[in-house]
Design brief:
- The longest helix has 38 residues, at 452-489.
- The chain is 34% helix and 25% strand.
- Strand 1 and strand 2 (50-57) form a beta hairpin.
- It starts with 21 loop residues before the first helix and ends with a strand.
- The strands form five sheets. It has a six-stranded antiparallel beta sheet. A five-stranded antiparallel beta sheet has the order 8-7-11-10-9.
- It is elongated.
- The protein has 715 residues and is an alpha+beta fold.
């Protein structure tokens, strides 16, 4: 195994022959050392950056079904542990919901988790996770950390040795407490069984998979089913009126959290029974008694499939995890990546193509799993009327499943000349709000049967993908519109002005439509140079449109020769005449490089910074007037500032210095310090440095505009 998986097919878990139980023994020892109640070992796949579960202990594998195969890029503890090569600790429900919401949606129970990489210095072999009840202290002890780290290091050395000796390490049978239907095996002694049999309430025992291993006579009487019909069966599948996902959820909650849980159920026609579940490391004990008739609060609950048998392709947990993941997709490429990372591994396919339509032709939105991208991209631009399965699925809205290459080529002879290297395909139309928005093509490396249940599951998944793709297409269209409008309203380049070097930056907000009212301009007219920066309140098309009008007005008033105070007053009256409810801040200056001065007028805008040639920075507390658009009679006095050779003026909007939880004075001081220490850099590099921290922020609630002006020698 290596950090960069090689290409080639991998033997599946179902067909792998089990070898020496190296993984099982290592996992059991780890769990025993730190008193964990469940865990699993993952191995890194040979053919893809994917972690595959090789053995699980302490819980049914169905609990972790959505994460049997986990992409290294997925937001999951084991993936993060491998990517960062460190121990990842999640101390409970709140932290799980905050850091890994997809897992919290499927397993909303109080439990703690640790994930660690299994790696030597130069090779990653896989990962391990372990879980504890929610009662575990909020932090791992030093002893627990040392034990787990050492155990994973030892396992990595054993895996390296096995690799060097040519002994492949394959998946192993999961570890769980053995099931038994004998009274002595369940309760320890015959006398204890007799005592339980005399109790007036029901007592039964469930193994880790929910199967009944013991039931007393009172249980049979209360449930109305003989003990012989209960033994070996799951409680919710053997008793029809208990076949409710909410009841099964209580069993899952008890096992995951190791906390006592309870529920009430209505036994027809009108008798309420109380069930109390006492968990242990090898199963649960259930106390059943009669309860008063009460209203049954029905809550939405997750439903899991029967045990972890081989017949289930995707459980409801898979669907919940995938739905949660797809809600995070913003653009079309996000959808493609999430389907590739979450759905393709879950359904066992090896390749993906996402198709859309544009102007009556197929459009390849994205693909995954093909070594040669030209195999897929040659379909881009093909007419929707072409006799291809992708076009047919998109236009007709009917799914198509081809179990072999011969079957596909028989119906679509054109595919004989365009092989893509796959052996089976599922063409899933993506239909949202009654209309097709695309086609999802899943490719399988080998011939693959599609039984009715699998077709139903894949068709259902296509509905989730369709909703996400429709949102993504709309977002991308709005995003392109917003950026096009913003680009049209801001200057494409700054004019060359004798005696002045200039550089500018604009960063849109990361929320909403990525469009706002921040603007800047540099104007050279009749030998006079002027600069302006401003901010119209709001982040929408209205704000952007008003910003364009203000910028045009400032240019017009500058061109006709108005003084700075008159430019501001005229723009203020224009904004009021437009009848807009929005206000704007603005800073306008007339530059005179020959005399080393600048005359400035301010309307409620953040003060500019002036860096002198000796490196000192001063905040220019200029005289000024109110925001534009408030008072038609407002005046805007001017201030003259010396601008000697080598001085730098920094004009900016408040998005550069405002951030949640940071005092505005502290932020302004920090900006001044950065300008002081880096102000000698070339102006373009200086501009990059001043916006770098804001530019890399994941959440930017406001636009950022920056205009730098440096006085330079002429001649």
């Amino acid at each position: 195994m290596s950090d960069v998986p090689a290409s080639g097919p991998r033997t599946t878990v179902e067909t792998a022959r089990m070898g020496h139980p190296l993984l099982s023994l290592a996992l059991a020892a780890m769990m025993d050392d730190v008193q964990a109640h469940s865990g699993a070992v993952y191995l890194l796949a040979h053919d893809a950056p994917v972690l595959e579960m090789a053995v699980m202990a302490g819980l049914p594998r169905s609990f972790a079904a959505p994460w049997e195969r986990v992409s290294l890029s997925a937001p999951a503890p084991v993936s993060e542990a491998v990517r960062d090569r460190r121990l990842v600790w999640v101390n409970g429900e709140e932290q799980m919901a905050r850091r890994y919401p997809r897992i919290a949606v499927v397993l909303p129970y109080p439990f703690a988790m640790a994930a660690l990489p299994v790696a030597t210095r130069d090779t990653t072999y896989g990962a391990v996770f372990l879980t504890w009840p929610g009662s575990h202290p909020p932090e791992l002890s030093e002893r627990e950390r040392d034990k787990l780290t050492s155990a994973c290091d030892r396992l990595a050395i054993r895996l390296r040795r096995a690799e060097e000796e040519g002994r492949p390490v394959l998946p192993e049978p999961d570890l769980s407490a053995p099931s038994t239907t004998t009274v002595a095996g369940t309760l320890g002694t015959v006398e204890a069984a007799r005592m339980v049999a005399r109790l007036p309430y029901g007592m039964c025992a469930l193994d880790l998979h929910g199967r009944i291993t013991f039931a007393n006579a009172a249980t049979a009487e209360l449930l109305g089913i003989p003990v012989s019909a209960l033994l070996g069966m799951q409680l919710w599948s053997s008793v029809p009126w208990l076949n409710d996902p909410a009841h099964e959820d209580r069993y899952r909650a008890a096992l995951m959290s190791q906390h006592v849980t309870s529920f009430m159920a209505l036994k027809p026609p009108g008798e309420w029974l109380s069930f109390r579940l006492y968990p242990g490391t090898n199963g649960l004990s259930v106390r059943i008694s009669r309860a008063r008739s009460v209203a049954s609060p029905r809550s939405a609950a997750r439903q899991e499939g029967d045990d972890d048998g081989p017949g289930r392709l995707v459980t409801i947990d898979h669907v919940l995890a995938m739905a949660s993941a797809l809600t995070e997709a913003v653009g079309v490429q996000d959808v493609v990546e999430l389907v590739a990372n979450e759905i393709v591994p879950a359904v066992g396919s090896q390749a993906l193509v996402m198709l859309g339509s544009r102007a009556g032709r197929l459009h390849v939105l994205g693909h995954h799993g093909y070594t040669d991208p030209h195999l897929v991209e040659r379909f881009d631009g093909m007419p929707l009327s072409a006799q291809t399965p992708g076009a047919r699925a998109l236009t007709a809205g009917v799914p198509a499943f081809f179990e072999s290459r011969q079957q596909l080529e028989h119906l679509y002879p054109v595919r004989q000349t365009t092989p893509d290297g796959m052996g089976a395909w599922a063409y899933l139309p993506l239909i949202a709000q009654g209309r097709p928005v695309g086609t999802c093509v899943l490719g399988y490396a080998d011939p693959h049967p599609f039984p009715a249940e699998e077709r139903a599951v894949l068709t259902s998944l296509s509905g989730l993908i369709a909703q996400a793709l429709q949102r993504a297409l709309l977002y991308d269209a709005k995003h392109q519109l917003a950026h096009g409008l913003q680009a049209a309203l801001l200057p494409h380049s700054l004019p060359s002005i004798p005696g002045i070097d200039a550089a500018s930056r604009y960063l849109p907000a990361t929320r909403g439509m990525d469009i706002g009212g921040d603007f800047f301009d540099l104007v050279l007219s009749h030998g006079r140079a002027s600069a302006v920066i401003g901010d119209v309140q709001g982040h929408n098309v209205t704000a952007a449109g008003l910003m364009g009008q203000i910028r045009t007005a400032v240019r017009a008033y500058t061109t006709v020769g108005q003084a700075p105070e008159d430019v501001m007053s005229s723009t203020n009256r224009l904004l009021i005449d437009l009848g807009s409810d929005l206000f704007a801040s603005c800073l306008y200056l007339r530059l005179d490089p020959a005399h080393g001065t600048a005359v400035m007028a301010r309307a409620g805008h953040p003060p500019p910074l002036l860096r002198r040639p000796d490196g000192r920075v001063k905040v220019l507390d200029l005289a000024g007037g109110p925001l534009l658009g408030i008072d038609a009679s407002a005046t805007y006095p001017t201030t003259e500032v010396a601008l000697s050779e080598g001085s730098v003026l920094a004009l900016y909007t408040d998005g550069l210095i405002e951030s949640p939880g940071v005092d505005i004075e502290d932020a302004l001081a920090d900006l001044g310090e950065r300008l002081a220490t880096t102000g000698n850099r070339p102006l373009e590099a200086l501009a990059d440095g001043l916006v770098r921290e804001t530019g890399t922020a994941e959440e930017r609630s406001d636009d950022v505009a920056l205009l730098l002006l440096r006085a330079v020698a002429t001649g």
